[in-house]
Amino acid sequence: MKIVIVICRQTQMTTYHLPTGIGMVSACLKQAGHDVVMINPNHSLEEYQPLLEREIKYHKPDVVATGGLGFQLNEIRLITDIARRMVPEAIIIIGGPLVSSVPSVAMAGVPAADYGIIGEGEYSTVELLDAIKTGSDIATVKGVIYRDTQNPQILHQTTARPLIDNLDLLPMVDMEGLGVDTYASLHRPGECAPALILDSDTRVIPLLTSRGCPFKCTFCVHEASRQRYRCRSLDSVFSEIQHAIDTYSINAFFIYDDLFCLNATRLEEFCRRIAPLGLRWECSMVVRQINPETLKMMKESGCCCISIGVESMSPTVLKSMKKGATVEQIELALTQIYEAEIALWSNLIFFDPAETLQTVDESLEWFSNHPQFDFRFAKIGYHPGSLIYDEAVRNGLISDQLKYLQSGNCELNGTSMSADDFDLAHRLIRRAQITFGYTGRLLGCKTDKNGAVNLTCCCPYCGTTGQCRLEGLIVRITCPSCNKIYRPPVAKRITPLPGAVADIDRLIQLTKKESSSNRTYEIWCQIIAIDPYYGEAWSQLLRHAEQKDDYRLYATILRNLLLLDPFVAASFKRMADVLTLL
After folding, report:
1. Chain CA centroid to CA 564, Å
2. For residue 195, what is the DSSP state?
């Protein structure tokens, strides 16, 4: 059968998470004799809808397949609606964590879908197409949800498919179909897997050596793997590594495993075998795996970064998340990684149901006292298949699952905090994110032919020069020498919308005609809403507060200015002066 697999768009010609699971399904379909084409919109600058319409019309597939995460439901629906319009007779199949976690909700939200694949999809998809082709009973195919032939609103779900115990039986990921050659060249210093990307010559792709995780963190999606941890043999893993090197000139890997090498013997053997290849690599581990001997072995074999699931530095929140580690154990592991000169890549996740202003403060205070550690800050997501999602459905926080997923917003206030405290916590977190941590010295700044700003900085730890591309407000640089991560002393200015200059000019003219100082204040606030970095507007707001002798308002304006741009020393001095008056 002619099959078109469409990958959901995450970005356009920049770094993103390559969906190796879909690549594995494609490889199995090809192995079964099907003609498979993969459309990857992430590798195109073309508008989404015209691209899909043209490709689907050109290939005229018998089957269109797609899938993704819970909050890609709207995009999955868009893809399937286009497919149904372009090839009305085609069979449409959806899968991924969305369908595996909430199959009935997924089918209701994607009315064009004929079938859904639940759980690991390699064998289920092949067997489903065999059954359709031969006219066999779909009910005999494990791991499938499908519509009733008489009434499409009625859904039938077959017996669950057992997990694949021997992962070596699966073929190698369809790298060609995924567009690995293009993907490997998309990364730039300072982007995804920052410790891996030293320069434009780095060619990095993901590598999956195991599936599942035996732990029970409340925010993780466990539905597909059901917490069963299974590993590929290292012979299989290194066969794929060698193929990637020989075919695509890959010189770095980030290991996609939720948990890499829980078995110490396997980790030792992996390090022994990868060391002669001269590759840089990074992986995810848990605190209990970390010790100086293991870190020394990993660094000598090319490991340049380890991701540790920290999530919080509040004992209360760690317990609520079921992390199974204490603050002291986490801090010891982080210190050992730091001393081994391996980069650290970790998260602080806020707003677990047990979160309070006090627990937020505990994490931020720890972070402020340990500027040598780099963390990404995130808000906890209520994703289908996670324990906190199930609890939110039970207690009514999520009253309508379909509407919730269609909203595209996985962040809820599941805490006991009031709306005001919740907003205050957001502000504290944002301020910490852009002000804490060590800063390097800026040595150079150039704009490339694509308009991207490339920075050269001096590492505050060892003095080595490092580079990154400035994209977004918060940027990190990994030192190519000591592997430590720091931030450049700049923040990207927000670009005003088209027409902003004309709007600002119009509003400025209004201020000249307006006699009411309060009305003038409101107009300057409108200007800041258009361009937050319009300096004259901030000066006018401060002048207004000063003329009114309203020092509380003055302090509030300064606080907002500091949250926007923490690198202006004069603002801190002003704040100190006004606080003295208060």
Report:
1. 24
2. T
